[in-house]
Amino acid sequence: MKVSRNTAAKTAVLEILTQSKTALSHTEIQKQIGTLCDRVTIYRILDRLLNDDLIHKTINLDGTIKYVKCRHAHPVQIHNHAHFSCQKCHEVTCLESVKPSYLIPHNYKVHDLNFTLSGLCPNCSFDQI
Amino acid sequence: MKVSRNTAAKTAVLEILTQSKTALSHTEIQKQIGTLCDRVTIYRILDRLLNDDLIHKTINLDGTIKYVKCRHAHPVQIHNHAHFSCQKCHEVTCLESVKPSYLIPHNYKVHDLNFTLSGLCPNCSFDQI
DNA sequence: TTTATAAAGCAACAAAGTTGCGATAATTTA
DNA sequence: TAAATTATCGCAACTTTGTTGCTTTATAAA
């Protein structure tokens, strides 16, 4: 089995995600990374971090993929909390406390879920008043 | 205001979505359309159908956008039912009966939501026994 | 019919993601 | 501490997906 290594680029990506209050896309991470490493490297780092369960993925309603640092202490099976995707500022935030409840036919086996709410975040809905 | 027209291509796209039991991506629709119309035309047709609320959009967990014919009789504000995305056969199906319930902080204004469950569909989980 | 214009086709472009391969550097081990 | 191993990186090339502008075609109303 492959032993994962700590590299400057990997550390930087994880740091960026740790500092960020919102979920970031590959492009947003790239902007912050600048010339520290190649575009392709960021893709590969994100893959590894996902594999190691250090970050997780959410899908925006417009189809863009965003990454978030996992806040939970230990690896979990399913990241079953909600995300909020603001239609105005396009920020995606974790709503750790919002957990959907649902009933699903027993013949479906659920391994993962994505629950994304979209609309106006507190900042942007304030602006609209 | 623009008056929407019925064209062969538009009718064909809607027919494909009507016949399909699963949600289809642009690429999947294109495969079925063949040479009937251009790739770009399909994008524009899908935009119009979305606008007319004849179809709706769901996002797969891998970030691919899929389209489904709306089954509801009348236009609705929010398509708040769940979708199931199979990790094996990659089919996306509507779970009309599965409606998530959730509590969200009052300062968020929800306009739309996407609730996608992922795992093995009945067909594929049967195969694994 | 004629006419207005929505929609289609085509080409060109932009953005996002992937792959292969030789070079580099983080760990392991001697 | 140096050498060996191999995970990771950089770069170039490519694929896929989605967008835009402009001319042509054809739908539906007058």
Features:
homodimer, 129 residues, alpha+beta, Arc Repressor Mutant, subunit A, 3-stranded antiparallel sheet, 3-stranded mixed sheet, 4 helices, 26% strand, globular, DNA-binding
Considering residues with a beta carbon less than 8 A from a beta carbon on another chain, report the largest interface and each chain's count: A-B, 37 and 36 residues
Number of helices of chain A: 4
Q: Given this structure, which CATH class of chain A is correct?
A: Mainly Alpha
Strand content of chain A: 25-35%
Average pLDDT across residues of chain A? 86
Uncertain runs of chain A? none
In angstroms, what is the radius of gyration of chain A?
16 Å
Structural class of chain A: alpha+beta
CATH topology of chain A: Arc Repressor Mutant, subunit A
Count of DSSP E strands of chain A?
A: 6
The number of distinct structural domains of chain A comes to 1
Describe the fold and architecture.
By secondary structure, chain A is an alpha+beta fold. The first copy, chain A, has a single domain, classed as Arc Repressor Mutant, subunit A. Helices cover 30% and strands 26% of the residues of chain A. Chain A contains 4 helices and 6 strands; from the N terminus they run αβααβββββα. Chain A has helices at 8-19, 26-33, 39-51, 122-127, and strands at residues 24-25, 55-59, 65-69, 82-86, 92-95, 109-120. In chain A, the strands form 2 sheets. Chain A has a 3-stranded antiparallel sheet. In chain A, β2 (55-59) and β3 form a beta hairpin. In chain A, α1 crosses α3 (39-51). The longest helix of chain A is centred in the middle third of the chain and has 13 residues, at 39-51. The radius of gyration of chain A is 16 Å and the shape is globular. Chain A binds chain B through residues 57, 59-61, 63-65, 82, 84, 87, 95, 98-105, 107-122, 125-126, and chain B through 59-61, 63-65, 82, 84, 87, 95, 98-105, 107-122, 125-126. β6 of chain A pairs antiparallel with β6 of chain B. Chain A binds a DNA duplex (30 and 30 nucleotides) through α3.
